[in-house]
Amino acid sequence: MARSRKVTVSTDAEGHTAGWAETDLALVSAPDPTAAAFFDVDNTMMQGASIYWFARGLASRNYLTTADLARFAWQQLRFRLLAREHAGDMSLAKEAALAFVEGWRVNEVEHLAEEIFDEMMAPRIWAGTHQLAQRHLDAGQRVWLVSAAPVEIGRVIAARLGLTGAIGTVAEVLDGAYTGRLVGDLMHGPAKAEAVTQLAAVEGLELARCAAYSDSANDLPLLCSVGRAVAVNPDGALLREARQHGWEVRDFRTGRRAVKIAVPSTAAAGLVAGAVTAGLALQRRRRAG
């Protein structure tokens, strides 16, 4: 056994994270180098969509107007409900991701992500899911987040939660600024499974000993690539698959809460057309400035 940093979670009456404290008092198992856990972010680790809350944070700083934010949310929802994973729609999502980051300095995005996590995202972390991740850490295993959001946002969330790291959509950077081109594809659907498989090869992981957690049937390739799949706050399609495969199901929502979050959580499958609106609004504000 070895001494390690422990993240202690406090929750509110509805089971959401109210805050956490870090101590150096926890005894954890010796490192387990061939096993790891992979957690989706939106509606799995966090209530709603990380990119939506990031946009909310931008709006609160006057980078976006209320109308921009409304269009952003609506177009995300439209993408999830109508587009699913058709090739043309994924191309639109890729263009949206490019518009969202083009011209931004990397350190600017990271700084904003840290501030907005503390203000908007931290209270929306599902305490139950965070505790599941902590169990893997206590067992000496590494834990990565896997999200379609920009990897910079994923890294901030992982760091704040005391996790190993994050896999996310990667934008090309030149001289410290985003070029508007992606490195590879959006981290969505089969791309998540491919990224985890590549990471396993680099890190010496045995996928049969690894676990994956998600709320969405879009992540079935990821869930099927590991030895243990867990459906967390699952959508209907994933719940059916979980029952068919005998997978564990964890639902941290109350009935009322599940209804309340249905729209913002389903608005988060990927970086979608609403990000174009966000990017254009940011450019307009910069020109105006």
What would you note in describing this structure?
This protein is an alpha/beta fold and 289 residues long. The protein has a single domain, classed as HAD superfamily/HAD-like (Rossmann fold), CATH 3.40.50.1000. Helices cover 48% and strands 22% of the residues. The strands form three sheets. A six-stranded parallel sheet has the order 5-4-3-8-9-10, with helices on both faces. The protein has a two-stranded antiparallel sheet with strand order 1-2. α9 links the parallel β9 and β10. The longest helix is centred in the N-terminal third of the chain and has 18 residues. The relative contact order is 0.20.
Question: Which secondary structure elements does this structure contain, and how are they paired or packed?
Answer:
Elements: E1 2-11, E2 17-28, E3 36-40, H1 50-60, H2 66-83, H3 87-101, H4 106-121, H5 127-138, E4 142-150, H6 151-161, E5 165-169, E6 171-174, E7 177-182, H7 190-203, E8 211-214, H8 220-224, E9 228-232, H9 236-245, E10 248-250, H10 255-260, H11 262-266, H12 274-288
Parallel strand pairs: 3-4, 3-8, 4-5, 8-9, 9-10
Antiparallel strand pairs: 1-2, 6-7
Helix pairs in contact: 1-2, 1-4, 2-12, 3-12, 4-6
